[in-house]
Amino acid sequence: MFSIRTWGRDANIAPIQQPNYGRWPPLHIEKRHCPCQDEKKKKRRRLWTILLVIILIYLLANTTFLNVRVVTMQPSSSSSQQKPPPSSGTSTPTTLSADAQQCLSQFTLNAPANPSSYPCSSCLPVLQGVPESFANTDPQDGQSVQNAIQFCGLKAIFDSADSTGQTALGNGNWVKDIKFCAWSGVSCDGVGLVSAIQLTFPGVPAAIPQEVGSLAGLQNFQVIGNNAVPGGSLPSTFTNITSLATLHLESTGMSALPDGLFSSLKKVTTLALLKNQQFGGALPSSVTQLSLQSLIVNSQPLSAPLTTLLSSTTLQSSLLVLDLSGTGLATPIPPSISAFTSLKELHLDNNNLQPPLPALPTATLQTLSLSNNTALNGAIPAGVCASAALKSCNLHLTGLGGSGTCGSCQF
Ligand SMILES: *[C@@H]1O[C@H](CO)[C@@H](O)[C@H](O)[C@H]1NC(C)=O
Ligand SMILES: *[C@@H]1O[C@H](CO)[C@@H](O)[C@H](O)[C@H]1NC(C)=O
């Protein structure tokens, strides 16, 4: 082996001293040339060539290495990003790829002072590729990886907002720093995952961005818009938020929820859809598989037949609050309503409900509101008037009851 010094000295000489090729002797002479002298020359020439190649490789490797370290990562590098090594049990330490390392140090070193310029578009996919086992190897860097992912999920909401929206969000500290748990409308759980987002116009995005799907700990997502924004549809990545328990969309310009949404989001217990005029009436059929506690569709069309909703045995046992006010209901209330054995509140105001009024789950019902259903007439089921549980009963603008009193009911 060469010592480094000899190597370096030879390397310095190499580019200057041209190998002496001379004039090639005629081919037939070369064949008879003394092999010993020729071999010496050949050996030297080969040595020079090898040295030259080694130097070139060394220089090339150096340049590449420096480039990777110094130059800001280009978005395209994420596509050429090699997959992190598959986690092979807890015993093998997980290391970060060069790109992930770069994204991590940019987040910890540069992002605190300059949060808006953190390259989420290239770093989010890279950091999402870091295996979970990495946090076991290096808990501190693991936490930083998770923080960067959460930061980018939220920053995408900010980036989607128009200038008025960004001003409003900025007033709540959005993307002013990387301490996103303290941004207004954002809550985190005990391990630093974003657990709740509550956005109110004008601090709303133009559309819910794909990156929201990276907020894996999100339990509560609430957006109140201005009927136009946010628009578009829920991003396909929304099905990733499997911890979601509450989805509240109000006064948005969004289109209908994807039909299979709740095949993925099985933990949703509160679904509140209010005044979303672009929804078009359809409710995901998968909603009947949910153990919902609250189902609120209010002041927007509902085309799903009441009989379908109310025949779900899952909903029958789970539902505490049912509010389908102002949804254009124009049928009788199906008798299956009496099978809702946990129901505490029933709101069906501002519809065109038809008689007769069936037996209601009066053992549990505390609030009954059927106001402004002018076609609803006839007798009130005896259980309603005699109920000890019923605290509030609004039958204003209905044809029910006629004369006399009926428990807590107001006519
Ligand atoms: C959603 O989940 C899939 C697989 O479950 C994953 O490949 C993808 O990166 C996730 N997307 C986001 C935005 O988190
Ligand atoms: C009664 O309900 C209808 C919709 O069925 C609505 O258009 C109307 O404004 C409501 N009236 C009152 C007084 O709330």
TrEMBL record:
The keyword Transmembrane helix applies. Residues 75-95 are annotated as: Disordered. The chain crosses the membrane at residues 47-68. Signal peptide: none annotated. The keyword Transmembrane helix applies. InterPro entries: LRR_dom_sf, LRRC69/RLP. Keywords: Membrane, Transmembrane, Transmembrane helix. This is L domain-like protein.
